[in-house]
């Protein structure tokens, strides 16, 4: 799940407020499943709960940013038979501090930790290596876990080390913590956590960025709420269609811009990709295949 803010017009602020939308994204099929408006003066978590209520989440793992690491959101995911993996930051200061302490305790790591190290990736002139460590959430005192002790079972430590080949220097490691309802007794829990955390950022890289660059949402200016909502929905349908055509193409690296141009001259490809993306979305509504 992720929040997207609509752009404000150049001047008239009296008749316009920022528009916020929460999107549920399927990182496996790389398509948007649905979006929900954040109503004026409403907490975003309420929009997340309404959105999650539309789906069966059995066998799925829902990820979200720290803003939505709230008991109400986690409870709705569990109620719909899913699992969660939520970013843990200083909005839960005591809990995050205790998790950091555990991951710095060598004795705890030697006895309980499960590790997963990804292969080094070379992208955009940077070499990136990723490490994920999983620990049982039961190591945290119930007093600190609070209401999370009902279903939080695992905490993840994720570290990304980056080496810039152009400037031949290492950047400061990026360290993040996650709280999850996944079973820590699974021998592959760290591998699973690595995959989930890696895919957590797909909505930023594969959706928001592409919508801004290829569909012009960064330049989008409007005042009418219904127009904004409908335009965003149509953009996401168009991107879903392009992603489906991309996955069926023999050239998996073909850009979205090129696929758009090909579909403009090939109505058969356009109709096939559109129908297939609708079927995938419909099946996901039934089985809740999300991440």
Unreliable sequence segments = 9-16, 285-291
Largest beta-sheet characterization: 8 strands, mixed
Annotation field: number of helices: 10
Question: Approximately what portion of the residues adopt beta-strand conformation?
Answer: 15-25%
How far the N terminus sits from the C terminus, by CA atoms, comes to 9 Å
Alpha-beta classification: alpha+beta
Radius of gyration: 21 Å
| Strand/helix succession | EEEHEHEHHEEEHEEEHHHHH
Count of individual beta strands: 11
- Quaternary state of this entry equals single chain
Shape: globular
Folded structure, characterized:
This protein has 291 residues and is of the alpha+beta class. The chain has one domain. α8 crosses α9, α8 crosses α10 and α9 packs across α10. The strands form two sheets. Strands 4, 5, 6, 7, 8, 9, 10 and 11 form an eight-stranded mixed β-sheet that branches. The chain has a three-stranded antiparallel β-sheet with strand order 1-2-3, sandwiched between helices. The protein is built from ten helices and eleven strands. The chain is globular. The N and C termini lie close together (9 Å).
